[in-house]
Here is the input.
Amino acid sequence: MANLMQHTDILNFLQNTPLEKLREEASKVLEKNKGRHVFVRGLIEFSNRCKRNCRYCGLRTQNKSLERYCLSHEEILSAAQNAVREGADTIVLQSGEGAVKAGWLAEIVSEIHRRLKVPITLCVGEASAKDYLLWRDAGASRYLLKHETSNPALYASLHPGYELAGRIEHLKLLRSLGYELGGGFMLGLPGQSLESLACDIALVRDLHTDMCGAGPFIPQRNTPLGHERGGGVELSLRVISALRFALPWANLPATTALASIDPAFGQINGLKHGANVLMPSFTPEASSSAYQIYDKKNRVRMAEARKAIELAGRSHSLP
Ligand code: 5AD
Ligand code: SF4
Here is the structure.
């Protein structure tokens, strides 16, 4: 019954509660639990190679129109130095799944850890327990792995050859290996109901993820879902607020996807509706344009992040 109530509450946040009220309440819960500080993560998209075929994603292996790249260790280190110099508190290394050899990634993790002494987050998809351990021992302390959707049938149809249960096992394995866990999902997926979104929120709450990134699905023209409709701005903000109520302890980013469907106000409004993390990109310009997960991807730079934090009336520790 208690769970049923919570599900109804979450549903109400997603569809009935006035947005204005969500903003006010989410800001209060945020300030009480996390304060006014906004964390700035330096994102480095070091390779757009991917072995998987998620039907929504422009990096899927069957997308042959994408030119693939992989940054060198030197390029990654230099981007990381740049990010830390500009005030990023964490380095996030992101790529498609199976993009590089595990040992190669461990070497650069270790180098960044040794030289820059900032927490390192990996967002490189599913791997073996052996590789998770290798990377953890090299110095990665956080792992971002979104469950994408909690609807088992939708999950299976979007991820040919994979099942939701397996995804959740990976999240639990990562936690058991000592990683801080970042979860997340997309909203506005074709065939996704509000009930299913409420289950997404309940799932990350039950997994007790330390971080949760939830952003709108945005169609990418070279994918099977290229002609579908994407998620909207209002629903994105509603989901952030609902997450803030359900996971008051968590760090919640205003996602790049939100900044892409609303370049002028996405980041600011995300912060105003309960988010406390921004993830500006430090991927070198030439490669960044090839990280085409979805169309019209916005590149959030440090200057924009700083401006959004200031306009949202919040604090940061950027130089
Ligand atoms: N729209 C929005 N987000 C997407 N992602 C992948 N494809 C899309 C898309 N079309 C997100 C997924 C994934 C991350 C790499 O990017 O949530 O976890
Ligand atoms: Fe690869 Fe991730 Fe895109 Fe799926 S969502 S195709 S795993 S980059």
Summary: Strands lie at 39-47, 90-95, 120-123, 140-144, 180-187, 211-216, 277-278. The mean pLDDT is 96.
